[in-house]
Amino acid sequence: MKALITSAGRGTRLRPITHTQNKHLIPVANKPMLHYAIESVREAGITEIGIVVPTDSDEVPNAVGDGAAWGAKITYIKQEEPLGLAHVVKISQQFVGDETFLFYLGDNIVLGGVKRFVEAFDRSGCNCLLTLAKVNDPQRFGVPVLEGNRIVAVEEKPKVPKSSYAVAGIYVYDSHIFEAVNEIKPSARGELEISDAHQYLIDHGRSVEHCELTGWWKDTGKPADLLEANRLVLESLTSRIVGRIDRSSALEGSVVIEEGSSIVNSKIRGPVVIGEQCVVENSYIGPFTSIGPGTVVRDSEVEYSIVMRDCQIINVGSRIERSLLGNDVQIYSASGKPRVHRFMIGDQGRIDVA
Questions:
Q1: d(Cα 137, Cα 222) in Å, to the nearest integer?
Q2: What is the mean pLDDT of the chain?
Q3: Are 90 and 192 in contact (CB under 8 A)?
Q4: List of residues 6+ apart from 310 with CB closer than 8 A
């Protein structure tokens, strides 16, 4: 079996972060999202991995490499523009060949990995295995129509969903999926929808089975989902202190302090991960926060947030909470008179001011 992982989407709902960074490389608990997908694939025993990347960027190949770090062989498949998930499968036919394959959306994180879905596919002898998850907003996803325990239809982003399940971003296929993606037509939004490919398989008598995700699953397409994924990953954090903690600082709960970092006269209440070469001084870092390498937090408070690398948060008077800060962000308390808010904000920035 091979694996196919997506990483070519534009990440429009995560702008402005994704104006300058591939969304699949955004860190969750200080590790790029895409790494979780690769690790899950390897845990399932798959070593041949295809990663679909945009034609106009080498960001993912440069960041991930040839797969040797995971004991895998990675092939990069270029996609000129994002034309739907079924299009991703279509352009990957040469890589997959006649083998079965796991299709993993690279911005999804699944507790417990994907090995059990691969095993369920092998046991069932089906042509397609879909993973289903109960969600509060199924209209955002492909939604299965169920009769008893059987999927009889799949609808893409229906205004009135016929079930509370979403088709999650983990699929397992045999080669019949290529017949489907080559026969379906673009939807009204101009994309080849993976739900239409699944419906094609159903309509043509192919066996479409499903497994329910019983643990947590996150599609990290929106900032709130990204923060929630960060929280869920940090919940299983194991403490590791490599950096320096002075005697006037206090740590509670599970905390990771990486090499070269200094915690001075501060309180860290885990779960929290602080990357390499950080300085936290006269500050409070609260639960479910990840601080990227090279960041300085001084005379400030941060909680339930993702702070990426090389940021500076200095003398901020109110707590920063439920926030997503990109690389090299600087937040300072204004000095002098008059007291003002002074911003330099890129396209589609978001700021709440108390």
A1: 13
A2: 86
A3: yes
A4: 292, 293, 294, 295, 327, 328
3-class DSSP string for 90-113: HHCHHHHCCCCEEEEECCEEECCC
Round to whole Å and give the CA distance between 44 and 272.
28
Tokens representing residue 209 in the block:
């089975």
Q: What is the mean pLDDT of residues 173-194?
A: 92
For 223, the token pair is 């900032």
Phi-psi region of 157 (alpha: psi -120 to 50; beta: other; left: phi over 0): left
Q: Is it true that the peptide bond before 271 is cis, omega within 30 degrees of 0?
A: yes
Contact partners, residue 260, CB within 8 Å, separation at least 6: 243, 276, 277, 278
Residue 328 scores a pLDDT above 90: no
Q: Look up residue 353 and give its two tokens.
A: 């001011």
The C-alpha R_g of the chain, in whole angstroms, comes to 22
Over residues 285-309, the pLDDT tens digits come to 999 999 999 999 999 999 999 898 8
